[in-house]
Amino acid sequence: MDRNDLLDLIPAYALGALDAEERAAVDSLLATDAEAQQLLAEYQGVAETLMLTAPARPAPAHLQADLKARLAAQRESTTGKTGAREAAPTARPTLQKRSIPLWMPLVAAAAALVVIVAGILLFRPAGDPSQQQYEQIVAMVGYQTFPVASGATGEAVIAPDGRTALRLTDLPAVTDDRVLQLWLVKADGSVTAGALYPWRDPQGVYYTTLTTTPEVQALAFSIEAPEGRTSEQGPSAAPVILVPVVNA
Question: No. of H helices and E strands in the chain?
Fold first, then answer.
């Protein structure tokens, strides 16, 4: 196998797709040939980049065999029908003029796929903002916790600055033409503060956020029509969930 043949094997060498005899021949060339060393460094750089951006997975045996067959066919296409190869020129073209190996388009496609997947992961929607605020509050110093007194399971957590988050499970059954409207209960009446839709995920964990003040005595939910009720109207019936938020 002459020098040109060995140079053509360097892409497969970088991928570990040569048999022992071929690898030994390329090793001998690399020991003394500066161009071969530079070519290998370029291909190894591409391979290492892919390894850092995608999980490593050994190539199937049939792909290694296919790569070898393609390289062999490429070498044979450069010889005449008699099998005589043209004499090697005294000076090889620069690396920029070398033909692109058959496996390079596959590498480019794999790299593009990695970029697309990374973009999807980077720009996918973040988690529930209400859950994030709940987690931020419980990480604070001096926050308070008030358990649900009736109607559900869970608690309200209140930060020192009044930011409040509710974490609720086991909500009462509500049909899809009704909502659970949240109220801030004060001594002089109730103020509306949002709504929950339990029928969307009956088995789920619900988070909701609001801001409380020292005048708020409890957080309560009533079952209402989807359009809800105003603070002037107040709840239409007694609350089905009650969370007292006053210190004993």
Answer: 7, 8
Last residue of a domain, one of 123, 156, 191: 123
Q: Residue 78 corresponds to which tokens in the numbers above? A: 């450069």
pTM of the model: 0.50
**Strand 189-196 to strand 206-211: parallel, antiparallel, or no bridges (unpaired)?**
unpaired
Give me 112's structure tokens.
Answer: 């593009």
Q: In what order do the strands lie in the sheet with 144-147?
A: 144-147, 153-158, 163-169, 206-211
Q: Are 22 and 11 in contact (CB under 8 A)?
A: no
Contacts of 8 (CB under 8 A, 6+ apart): 71, 74, 75
Helix (H) or strand (E) holding 180: strand 179-186
The one-letter code for the residue type at 9 is L
Kindly state the average pLDDT of the residues 81-86.
Answer: 45
State which residues form the domain around 186. 129-244
Task: Report residue 27 as tokens.
Answer: 């090793």
DSSP 124: S
Q: Which residues contact 59 (CB under 8 A, 6 or more apart)?
A: 15, 16, 17
Which residues, in sequence order, are bridge partners of residue 220? 183, 242
Shared-domain flag, residues 104 and 198:
no
The reply to whether 119 and 134 lie within a common domain is no
227 half-sphere exposure, CB direction, 13 A CA radius: 2
Q: Residue type at 133?
A: Q
Provide the number of structural domains found in the chain.
Answer: 2
pLDDT digits (tens, 9 = 90+) for 112-134: 555 554 554 444 445 678 889 99
Are 67 and 146 in the same domain?
A: no
